[in-house]
Specification:
The chain is an alpha/beta fold and 771 residues long. The chain is built from 22 helices and 36 strands. The chain folds into 5 domains: 189 residues, Aminopeptidase; 124 residues, Rossmann fold (3-Layer(aba) Sandwich); 118 residues, Succinyl-CoA synthetase domains (Rossmann fold); 140 residues, 3-Layer(aba) Sandwich (Rossmann fold), CATH 3.40.50.261; 143 residues, ATP-grasp fold, B domain (D-amino Acid Aminotransferase, Chain A, domain 1, 2-Layer Sandwich). The longest helix is centred in the first third of the chain and has 23 residues.
Length: 771
C-alpha cells in the first residue's frame, strides 16, 4: 500500500496575501514584502526592544541596517519575506522569511520577528506555517533556524508547530531543523490555530458585551429606530447605546432617542462596545466605520444595502486596518438566543425560539421568512446570521464557530455563492463528522452537487425540505440501519412514503390498521412495532371519522414515551394529513410532524444517507512516490498545449504510462477542467456509445481512495476498478501539485484485468498560475 499523502491545509484567503486573524480575534493583513516597504521596516525595527533585535540578528543592529538585511534579495536563491500589517496608517507588526541555501537547494533558513506588543498572539506560528506551505510549493523540503538559547518564544513556536523538530545546542546557540512537508500533526495544529482565532474574532459578533446603534433616529419608522427597539424589547443582556451623529442638541438639552440617552458620536459612548450596528446612508458608512475603529470597537454589522463597489472595498480595508470583523454590508439579521445574550439585531422584530439549530443565510429576505416558518414548526435556534455581501464574515467562519459551540447541534446554510469552496470542503468534511450540515442552494450545478456529496453535506431541494430534514437531524437520533416500520390507517399515503424511502435504499414494512382504526389500536400497534427491532418508525394518520387527531397523537405520545423509557433510541416521525397538525413532544424532545407522507419519507432517507456517510471511515490519499519537483520544472518552462513528448514525460513523473491496446473492453475518457471557483474538476465518461458520451461521475480534487472507488461503482464487474482507481488518484495528485494544468484529457481502454491509457492531451495556462 502506498504511503499516505497529506494535502496541505487551505487558508481562507490567498496563501501569501490577504486578511488574517490573530489569536485574540483581531484582524490584520498579510502580504509579501516590497522594496518600497523600507520606511515601514525601519519604523518597525525602531519600535522593537533591543532584546528583540538582538534575538533576531544576534547582536545590536541599527534599524536602517537591519531593514536592508531583511529586504536584501540574494542572487540565484529563492527568498520569501512576508509582513503582517495593521493600523491606520498601516505599520508592520511582524515579519518572517526563508532564504534558500544556494541555487537548487531543497533546504532553507527560516526566521521571523514579532512586535513586542503583539507577542503571544500566534503571529510567529502563522508566519512559520505560511512560509512552510510556500516553500513546499517551490521545492523546498527542509527548514533550519539558528536562535539564542534564551529566545524561548521562538523555540516554543518551533516546538508547537507540529513539525518533527530536531535541535542541537552549542555555545548558547540552538540550531533547529525539520522537514516541512505537511503531516497530520502539522495540519491539525494549523486548523486548531485558525479555529481558535476565528472563534475569538466572532465572540464580539455573536456574544457582544455592549452594542452601539450608529444611525439611531428619533423617527419610529426609520431603520435605526426599529433596530434599537428590537434590541431593547428582546432584552439584550448588555448595554445598548443609540448614536445619532446628526443630532445637534441645544445648549443644556440632553440628546435622546425614544426614552434612551443618546450620543452624538461613538467616541462619546462611556461603556464597552463590542459590536456597532451601522444604519446610516451609504455615504456616511465609511465615516462611521472609521470612528468605530478609532473607538476600539471589535466588530461591525452594516445594515446599509445600496453601497457601491468602491465603498465596500474601502469599508473592508478600514475594518482590517483597525482589526474589526465585518458582517455585511446588507446584513438584515443577527441573533443569539442564549439566555446570557438574547441578541436580536436587525430587522426581525423578535428572537426565534431557543433551540439547537444555527443558520446562516446569504439572502436577508429568505432568512427573515425562514425564521417565521421555523416558529410555526416549533423549531428553535441557537444563532441566526444574515450574511449580506459577506465581504468578511462568511459561512466558513461561522461553521468553525459552531463546530465546538455546545448550544449548536445542527448547522443550516442557505448558499447562493461560494467565496472559497475548497476551504468549505475541508471544513465540511471535518465538522460534518461531529454535527450535520444541511444546505439549500438555488439551481442544480453538478459541481456543487459533487462538492456536497464528497463532504457529507446534506442537500435540500428547497427551504421547506430543509426544515423537513432539519426536524429529524436536530431532534431525533440518526437511523442506524435501513429497516423502517410504517404504521397507517390508509394504504395509499403509506405507499407514497414507502416509495420515497425505498428510492433511497431503505426498506419499509407497512402495518395498515384500516380506515376504522381507533386510538387504542394505534397505541397497541405502535408498542409492538417499536419493540420489533426496526431502525426507524413513521406513524401516518388520516382523519376518517373513527378517531380524532388529538386521540391518535396522545396514543402515539404514550407509546413513544414507553419506548424511550425502555432505551429504544430510533428516530420517530409522525404524519397527520390534516390542517392543524398536533405536535408530539417527549419532554424536551420534538417528534417531527409532516403534512404529506412523501415529505416524511424523503426527510428520513436524507438522515439515513448522512448517517451512512458519518459512520463510513474517511478515505485517504496514497502518496505513490511521485516526482513533483521534476514535474514542476517541466511545467515551469512550458505554456499552452504540451507536445506529445512533453505530455508523456509529465505523465511519467506521476507514474502514468501511455500504451496502445487492441483488446476488447470499455472505452472511457478522463478529463480535468479548471473551474475558476472550484479549482480542478475531474470527470469520467463512457465513450463510443450510440447516443454519445455518458457521464459516470464528477468530483472535485483532491480525491480520496474511497471517493474514487465510489465514482467507479457503475463499472463494477465490467472494468478493472483497481487500476482505474489508481489512475484517478494519480491524476488528482497531478493537478493538485500543478495548478498550471488548466486542462487534461486521457483516453482509456479498460478490461476486467487491466486499464490502458492510449492517448493523452495536457494544456497549461498561458500565464503562471497563482500558488
Amino acid at each position: 500500500m502506498p504511503q499516505r499523502y497529506i494535502p496541505p491545509p487551505t487558508p481562507q484567503y490567498a496563501l501569501e496575501s490577504g486578511p488574517i486573524l490573530l489569536k485574540d480575534g483581531r484582524t490584520a493583513t498579510l502580504r509579501p514584502a516590497q522594496p518600497e516597504d523600507r520606511a515601514l521596516f525601519v519604523e518597525f525595527l525602531q519600535r522593537l526592544s533591543p532584546q528583540a533585535r538582538t534575538f533576531r540578528f544576534f547582536s545590536e543592529v541599527d534599524p536602517e541596517t537591519a531593514a536592508d538585511l531583511l529586504l536584501r534579495k540574494p542572487p540565484d536563491e529563492d527568498k520569501v519575506t512576508l509582513v503582517v500589517l495593521t493600523g491606520d496608517p498601516e505599520r508592520i507588526i511582524a515579519t518572517g522569511e526563508y532564504v534558500q541555501e544556494g541555487p537548487g537547494s531543497t533546504s532553507a533558513e527560516v526566521a521571523f520577528l514579532v512586535d513586542d506588543w503583539y507577542q503571544g498572539r500566534g503571529l510567529g506560528s502563522l508566519l512559520l506555517e505560511r512560509l512552510a506551505l510556500i516553500g513546499v510549493q517551490r521545492g523546498i523540503r527542509r527548514f533550519h533556524a539558528f536562535t539564542l538559547a534564551e529566545n524561548k518564544q521562538m523555540l516554543d513556536v518551533f516546538k508547537a508547530s507540529g513539525f518533527q523538530v530536531e535541535s542541537h545546542t552549542e555555545s548558547g546557540e540552538v540550531e533547529v531543523s525539520f522537514d516541512i512537508e505537511p503531516n497530520p500533526e502539522m495540519v491539525a495544529r494549523f486548523e486548531l490555530r485558525e479555529r481558535v482565532a476565528t472563534v475569538a474574532s466572532l465572540l464580539p459578533v455573536l456574544r457582544p458585551k455592549g452594542v452601539a446603534v450608529v444611525g439611531a433616529s428619533r423617527d419610529p419608522s426609520s431603520v435605526g429606530y426599529q433596530i434599537l427597539e428590537h434590541l431593547v424589547l428582546n432584552r439584550f443582556q448588555g448595554p445598548v447605546y443609540p448614536v445619532n451623529t446628526a443630532a445637534t442638541p441645544a445648549a443644556g438639552e440632553v440628546p435622546v432617542v425614544g426614552s434612551m440617552l443618546a450620543y452624538t458620536s461613538v467616541k462619546a459612548v462611556p461603556g464597552p462596545i463590542d459590536l456597532a450596528i451601522i444604519t446610516t446612508p451609504r455615504d456616511k458608512v465609511l465615516e462611521a466605520a472609521e470612528a468605530c475603529g478609532q473607538r476600539g470597537v471589535r466588530a461591525l454589522m452594516v445594515i446599509t444595502t445600496d453601497m457601491e463597489e468602491r465603498q465596500i472595498k474601502a469599508l473592508a480595508q478600514t475594518c482590517r486596518h483597525y482589526g474589526m470583523r465585518l458582517l455585511g454590508p446588507g446584513s438584515l439579521a443577527l441573533m443569539s438566543t442564549s439566555s446570557e445574550v438574547q441578541l436580536c439585531a436587525g430587522l426581525a422584530p423578535r428572537l426565534p425560539l431557543q433551540g439547537r439549530i444555527a443558520m446562516s443565510s446569504q439572502s436577508g429576505a429568505v432568512g427573515l421568512a425562514v425564521l417565521e416558518y421555523a416558529r410555526e414548526m416549533g423549531m428553535g435556534f441557537s444563532n441566526f446570521v444574515s450574511l449580506g455581501a459577506k465581504v468578511d464574515i462568511s459561512s466558513n467562519d461561522l461553521i468553525q464557530y459552531w463546530e465546538e459551540d455546545p448550544e449548536t447541534g445542527l448547522i443550516l446554510l442557505y448558499v447562493e455563492s461560494f467565496g472559497n469552496p475548497r476551504r468549505f470542503a475541508r471544513l465540511a468534511r471535518r465538522v460534518g463528522r461531529k454535527k450535520p450540515i444541511l444546505a439549500v442552494r438555488p439551481g442544480r450545478d453538478p459541481v456543487v452537487e459533487a462538492l456536497f456529496k464528497q463532504t457529507g453535506v446534506v442537500r435540500a431541494e428547497n427551504l421547506e425540505e430543509m426544515f423537513d430534514i432539519a426536524a429529524i437531524l436536530a431532534h431525533q437520533p440518526l437511523p442506524e440501519g435501513p429497516n423502517v416500520a410504517l404504521l397507517t390507517n390508509a394504504s395509499g399515503p403509506a405507499y407514497l412514503a414507502k416509495d420515497a424511502l425505498e428510492a433511497e435504499g431503505l426498506q419499509a414494512e407497512v402495518r395498515d390498521l384500516g380506515s376504522r382504526a381507533s386510538a387504542e389500536e394505534y397505541l397497541a400497534a405502535a408498542q409492538a412495532l417499536l419493540s420489533g427491532g426496526y431502525h426507524a418508525f413513521i406513524a401516518l394518520f388520516v382523519p376518517l371519522g373513527y378517531a380524532t387527531l388529538e386521540e391518535v397523537a396522545e396514543a402515539l405520545q404514550t407509546a413513544f414515551n414507553e419506548a424511550r423509557a425502555q432505551g429504544i433510541q430510533i428516530p420517530l416521525l409522525t404524519c397527520f394529513m390534516a390542517a392543524g397538525r398536533p405536535r408530539v413532544r417527549l419532554g424536551a424532545e420534538l417528534v417531527p410532524s409532516y403534512r404529506f407522507p412523501e415529505s416524511a419519507g424523503r426527510a428520513l432517507a436524507a438522515a439515513y444517507a448522512y448517517a451512512q456517510w458519518r459512520t463510513t471511515p474517511p478515505g485517504e490519499i496514497p502518496d505513490h512516490g511521485v516526482q513533483e519537483d521534476a514535474a514542476r520544472a517541466l511545467v515551469g518552462k512550458a505554456r499552452g498545449q504540451l507536445s506529445p513528448k512533453q505530455t508523456q514525460e509529465l505523465l511519467g513523473y506521476f507514474g502514468i504510462a501511455l500504451r496502445p491496446s487492441s483488446q476488447p473492453g470499455i472505452a472511457l475518457v478522463l478529463r480535468i477542467r479548471h473551474d475558476a471557483l472550484f479549482g480542478p474538476v475531474l470527470s469520467l465518461s463512457l465513450t463510443g456509445l450510440p447516443l454519445g458520451e455518458q457521464l459516470l461521475g464528477l468530483r472535485i480534487t483532491p480525491l480520496t481512495d474511497r471517493e474514487a472507488l465510489e465514482m467507479l461503482q457503475p463499472l463494477a464487474g465490467k472494468a478493472h476498478l483497481e487500476s482505474l482507481q489508481d489512475l484517478l488518484l494519480r491524476v488528482s495528485r497531478m493537478v493538485e501539485e500543478l495548478p498550471e494544468v488548466e486542462g487534461l484529457e486521457l483516453t482509456l481502454h479498460s478490461q476486467p484485468e487491466a486499464t490502458a491509457v492510449t492517448q493523452a492531451q495536457v494544456r497549461l495556462r498561458n500565464h503562471p498560475a497563482k500558488r
